[in-house]
Automatic annotation (TrEMBL):
This is ribonuclease H. Pfam families: RT_RNaseH_2 (PF17919), RVP_2 (PF08284), RVT_1 (PF00078). It is an enzyme of class 3 (hydrolase). Residues 1-11 have a biased composition (Basic and acidic residues). The lineage of its organism: Eukaryota, Metazoa, Chordata, Craniata, Vertebrata. It comes from the Eukaryota.
Length: 762
């Protein structure tokens, strides 16, 4: 739902109902009972003085499936006075729902019996999937204009499902026989925690067999790319010990053995080898059996087939506008163990010794074997319209018409080779997609919002292992973070050498700065070899860094950031050499883009002496080696002042929120925190994360993974976690009075109100 519509909710706690005052005839109810009602839907108006119905209202979060965006969470109003289910036309258009026409238009009456200004309802939507937590159904809506809630569920929905409403817990419980037989998914799945099960689009329905779960559980045939386990000559056969298991783990082990014996994936063994088993928890809370193959892997000859570089895969997506994500079902179980090597996979349990006939997780050669297998099958598709990383497939196209053809080609190839996809983890015909930890769109690359949320929850490390975990996560996304090495240096210094762990004040500052930078990262543009490159490099006493940019209109837009800490010898370099080293390191890191570039590379530096690099008469041996390296590139060094450097980054700076603390918030001009027109949301500040503020521009782009959360959540956590004060749109009808002290209501606040609200936060 658009942020404009979200803001149209009444600020005094009232709920809107039918009438002539608002768009389409919906208006705000006055008096004590405030409700939304629709009457006379199926018949024309016969009595304009008809008494309005009364009903019960209930607001809840639902998830609708969008052919454009995948699952979309919104707030729906349940109204027992509405005689049908309604969806707002603009919202339905944003989901890409298909419409059907009624033979005879249906007149919709407002609460006072008058026809709505929008006129008769003439269309209804193609059935789409809707989830309310674990409750799932196919539902159609009447299409009209509902300005305050995108979806209204009325009497037909309530009659069909007959839910129990818990006013204490503010929950719906679906316990009717109809729901038990038709609406509940197999597993408990909260829509806010996991992607819901989806249906196969009709245009691909002839490939239903590719998504057949039962077929995927059959033992695959032997192929040329079976998993080989070649042992080092003379190495002792591994034999581990039984691990103690909890009662739930023992039950999960029994189920695993029975299920896989039935499928033919394992068989009883008399092998001299025996590896132990253990369990790890999945995100869903279920237990996954893992065989501890460490001893076997230590004596196994390595399969050196390379896994693709994720950065190279993502570079192939330049120019794509439509995406489909496929996930293989069973993945490793689709590959057989080479005949004669099965005994080496033997694992021991309290129920006996078994060996695997299919490839298991934990085998050192499994990733390389599987990547070799899928690369061979799809060799002629790779990089043209398909990229693959192990069992994750992404089909990409420049237009919708060619995308359907590409998806069908991939599905046909899967069918030809007896491979199967997991429908509940696939997503079709998307305009943006989360893939390998990144969010990909035609605009470029950004961090997965779920990862950003994880950063916000990260507590300051208390030992070396926790520091290593944080730095390992942060390093994966360092290409988004300017000056990453500078801020990570004091954190890294806490684990250098053999000194005891000590979390310093500088490390704490760097830790919080990195968290803030992660939550304000820009969208990185896909590098285009047909456009000139600009490299902006800089150096400090402890680190070097650079940003690769390309012009977009009148601005330079970042393609990637690079930084690293200086080694101990490098910290002794002269300023000139450190600045030159920053350029050299950037060229090495982005060599695949910069070497033999179509246009001369512009290098921007604030060190004037670097302009004379190629004309310098005296160079030491190190500088001479570097000069030979630079001969591989066609570039020009331009001196820019620090002010000009900031101007070059104007676009990326505009994308980052400005931090506001209580002191400067008090002195903000009125235009920064108040607007005379509530619909002019671009003028209103809104919290993007618990560490900073940003003007809304717009929410759907800046917070793609968080856009369905209320602004009050961010403001509340901003206050609790960082002592920053934040502004946000206050939905008074949905919050308790005690929470008001955490907010500035930008719709109605006065300067005195702001000063008053700030007091609890200082």
């Amino acid at each position: 739902m658009s942020s404009q519509k979200e803001a149209r909710r009444p600020s005094d706690g009232g709920v809107l109902r039918g009438g002539g005052g608002c768009r389409g005839g919906w208006n705000k109810a006055g008096g004590g009972s405030q409700r939304l009602g629709v009457d006379g839907l199926t018949n024309p108006v016969k009595n304009s003085t008809q008494e309005p119905q009364t009903g019960v209202l209930f607001l809840l979060v639902v998830t609708l499936w969008s052919v454009k965006k995948g699952p979309v969470m919104i707030h729906a109003m349940i109204d027992s006075g509405a005689t049908n289910n309604f969806i707002d036309r603009d919202f339905a258009d944003s989901l890409g729902l298909q419409y059907h026409d009624f033979k005879n238009a249906r007149v919709v009456q407002a609460i006072d019996g008058r026809p709505l200004k929008t006129g008769p309802v003439s269309q209804w939507t193609e059935p789409t999937r809707m989830w309310i937590r674990e409750h799932m159904e196919e539902i159609s809506f009447f299409v009209t204009e509902v300005p305050h809630f995108p979806v209204i569920l009325g009497i037909p929905w309530l009659t069909l499902h007959d839910p129990n409403i818990s006013w204490t817990n503010r929950e719906l419980q679906f316990t009717s026989r109809f729901c038990q037989n038709h609406c509940l998914v197999a597993k408990v799945c909260h829509a806010t925690d996991a992607e819901p099960i989806i249906t196969l689009p009709k245009k691909y329905s002839d490939f239903w067999d590719v998504f057949n779960e039962k077929e995927a559980e059959k033992l695959p045939p032997h192929r040329p790319y079976d998993c080989a386990i070649d042992l080092v000559e003379g190495a002792p056969i591994p034999r581990g010990h039984l691990y103690s298991l909890t009662e739930p783990e023992q039950e999960a082990l029994r189920e695993f053995i029975e299920s896989n014996l039935c499928k033919g994936f394992i068989r009883p063994s008399q092998s001299p080898a025996a590896s132990p088993v253990m369990f790890v928890k999945k995100k869903s809370g279920d237990l996954r059996l893992v065989v501890d193959y460490r001893a076997l892997n230590n004596i196994t000859k390595r399969n050196r087939y390379p896994l693709p570089l994720i950065s190279d895969l993502l570079d192939r997506l330049r120019g794509a506008k439509v995406y489909t994500k496929l996930d293989l079902r069973g993945a490793y179980n689709l590959v057989r163990i080479r005949e004669g090597d099965e005994w080496k996979t033997a694992f021991q349990t309290k129920f006996g010794l078994f060996e695997s006939l299919v490839m298991n997780y934990g085998l050192s050669g499994a990733p390389a074997t599987f990547q070799h297998f899928v690369n061979y099958i799809f060799q002629d598709y790779l990089d043209r319209f398909l990229i693959i990383y192990l069992d994750d497939f992404l089909v990409f196209s420049r237009s919708q018409s060619e995308h359907e053809q590409h998806v069908r080609m991939v599905l046909q190839r899967l069918r030809d080779h007896g491979l199967y996809a997991k429908l509940e983890k696939c997503a079709f015909d998307l305009q943006e997609v989360d893939f390998l930890g990144y969010r990909v769109s035609p605009l470029g690359l950004s961090m997965d919002p779920a990862k950003v949320s994880a950063v916000l929850e990260w507590w300051a490390p208390t030992n070396k292992k926790e520091v290593q975990r944080f730095l390992g996560f942060a390093n994966y996304y360092r290409k988004f973070i300017p000056d990453f090495a500078r801020w990570s240096d004091p954190i890294t210094s806490c684990i250098r050498g053999k000194q005891p762990f000590r979390w310093t004040e500088q490390a704490e500052k760097g830790f919080h700065q990195l968290k803030q930078l992660f939550t304000t990262q820009p969208i990185l543009q896909h590098p285009d070899p047909k456009t000139p490159f600009v490299v902006q490099a800089d150096a400090s006493d402890v680190a070097i860094g650079a940003v690769l940019m390309q012009p977009v209109g009148e601005h330079l837009h970042p393609c990637a950031y690079y930084s690293r800490q200086l080694t101990a010898p490098e910290r002794n370099y002269t300023i000139w050499e450190k600045e030159l080293l920053a350029i050299k390191a950037a060229f090495e890191n982005w060599r695949h883009w910069l070497e033999r570039a179509k246009f001369p590379i512009e290098v921007h530096t604030d060190h004037r002496n670097l302009e004379h690099l190629r004309t310098a008469r005296k160079l030491n041996q190190r500088q001479q080696r570097w000069a030979l390296f630079f001969e591989r590139f066609d570039f020009r060094i331009h001196y820019v002042t620090p002010a000009q450097t900031k101007q070059a980054d104007a676009l990326q700076d505009a994308e980052r929120p400005q931090n506001l603390d209580c002191c400067n918030l008090k002195t903000l001009p009125r235009s920064q925190w108040e607007t005379s027109n509530p619909l002019q949301l671009s003028q209103l500040p809104l919290t993007q994360n618990p560490f900073s503020l940003k003007k809304l521009e717009p929410v759907n782009r800046q917070m793609p993974g968080l856009k369905n959360r209320f602004a009050k959540d961010y403001v509340f956590h901003s206050h609790l976690r960082t002592d920053y004060y934040a502004t946000g749109i206050m939905f008074t009808s949905l919050q308790a009075p005690a929470e008001k002290r955490h907010f500035i209501c930008v719709m109605t606040a006065s300067q005195q109100d702001i000063l008053g609200y700030l007091k609890p936060c200082t």
